[in-house]
Amino acid sequence: MARRSTVQQVAGDHEHSAYPSPELDLAPQGRRGARRLRWSGSGGRWLVWIGRALLWAVLIVILINGVRAPFERFTQGDPSPAAPTPTPGAGFPTEQAVSFASQFAAAYLNFDAANPAVRAQKLKPFLPEAAHDQFGWNGFGKMQVIGIQLSHVEVQNANNAVVTLMVHSGERRWLFSVPVYAKDGRFVVSQRPALLPAPGPAELPPAPPTEQDEATAAELTPQLKGFFEAFASGDPEQLRRYVAAGVEIEGFNGAFTLAQLKQVIVPPGGNTRSVTAIVVWAIPATTPAPTTDPTAEPTDAPVDPPGALEQAYQLTVEKQGDKWFVKDVRGARRPAA
């Protein structure tokens, strides 16, 4: 009996110990409900703490990199962009070449068999040293061009381009192609030029039908007639009678006179309208110069009749009270199809 009590006491002491012995089993064999104590060790806690430390280290590194990247971009600036790929023909002096080709065209395309030496002298600054002084012309015939303007430029490289001009000769329009070589700010015609046919006029579609406000057109016609008479004379006092307050419109100062207000087209609308007026201007006739010889006999030399030129104007008119006033006048536009 005394021994059994001692064993039980020892078992009780181990149950309350904070550090039980490994694999210590003090319960008697076969006893139901007996408690078995096993030692789990302290190594698991160190693994948990090491894992937590590694996790915090990773988070700190991510946070530092996230803050540092925009700061570095702000302080260092954006990286320099890549150098652009050179464009073929980049660096060719296009504007100067166009001026050079236009002057050459005026010398080349204007010639007269009565005086070929004049053309040769005019061509000399444009041609290579070994070129013939007439550059392809045989010295016969006559040609005259006007209205030399740029059509387009085809740049081949930094030294070569073809300048194509539009020219007008007689009843025809032409394209004139001029090969130009450029280097160190100097230019030369590098090959014989070429005349080409210019495109014909574009085919204009029919204009859409416009609705006419006949009553307002009848009301506006006498008012616009007076306006165009004042517009031709350029008299400011007369113009103020027809122009809206605060609007300044300059006239022709007597260069023309009104021959006819041919048509007034007024679309439906409110007190402000955009109207079209077809006007015929009378152009002063050419008269013989007066003689200063007092002994000269008077002559009945015929006087040319005055010229007439039909024009189309678009006016913005505004009704104030019972009267219409002009706010703006410009060239007419074709109604959009």
Salient structural properties:
337 residues; alpha+beta; Nuclear Transport Factor 2, Chain: A; five-stranded antiparallel beta sheet; four-stranded antiparallel beta sheet; 6 helices; 11 strands; flat; disordered N terminus
Q: Report helical residue fraction.
A: 25-40%
Q: Quick one: biggest sheet?
A: 5 strands, antiparallel
* Helix and strand element order: HHHEHEEEEEEHHEEEE
CATH class (first level) name of the domain at 94-197 = Alpha Beta
What is the CATH topology classification name of the domain at 94-197?
A: Nuclear Transport Factor 2, Chain: A
Number of beta-strand segments: 11
Summary of the model, kept short:
With 337 residues, the protein is an alpha+beta fold. It has helices at residues 2-15, 43-76, 94-108, 116-123, 214-233, 236-240; strands at 111-112, 142-143, 146-155, 160-169, 172-183, 186-189, 194-197, 257-265, 272-283, 307-320, 323-331. It is flat.
Describe the structure.
The protein is an alpha+beta fold and 337 residues long. Among the domains are: 94-197, Nuclear Transport Factor 2, Chain: A (Roll), CATH 3.10.450; 214-285 and 304-331, Roll (Nuclear Transport Factor 2, Chain: A). Helices cover 28% and strands 26% of the residues. Strand 4 (160-169) and strand 5 (172-183) form a beta hairpin. The radius of gyration is 50 Å and the shape is flat. The termini are far apart.
Annotate the secondary structure layout.
Layout: H1 2-15, H2 43-76, H3 94-108, E1 111-112, H4 116-123, E2 142-143, E3 146-155, E4 160-169, E5 172-183, E6 186-189, E7 194-197, H5 214-233, H6 236-240, E8 257-265, E9 272-283, E10 307-320, E11 323-331
Antiparallel strand pairs: 1-2, 3-4, 4-5, 5-6, 5-7, 8-9, 9-10, 10-11
